């Protein structure tokens, strides 16, 4: 499908203003760009961004993939990292902070880590 050049330019401008992809998609649709073109452009952009900016993995980090509301656990679903946890410091990095579910899971992880630290103190 050919994508309108004005749509591409507008999307680039919004992305350089640090709008998350979901917000860019909503803005473009609100501005009246054709839905098929917007969806195709945003999907392609997301794929490229995920390819170019992978989370910084090493043996000291754990990545958590969250199945967000509306997503399907499809056979070919590519895992994405939503939260990155540093094993040494316990620091959480939210890769998808625009997703409400990411915050909920991050808070649960923090609580679990706090409980684990408390029990570790008693065993040492």
Automatic annotation (TrEMBL):
Highest taxon of source: Bacteria
Name of the featured protein: Uncharacterized protein
Organism: Desulfosporosinus orientis (strain ATCC 19365 / DSM 765 / NCIMB 8382 / VKM B-1628 / Singapore I)
Source organism phylogeny: Bacteria, Bacillati, Bacillota, Clostridia, Eubacteriales
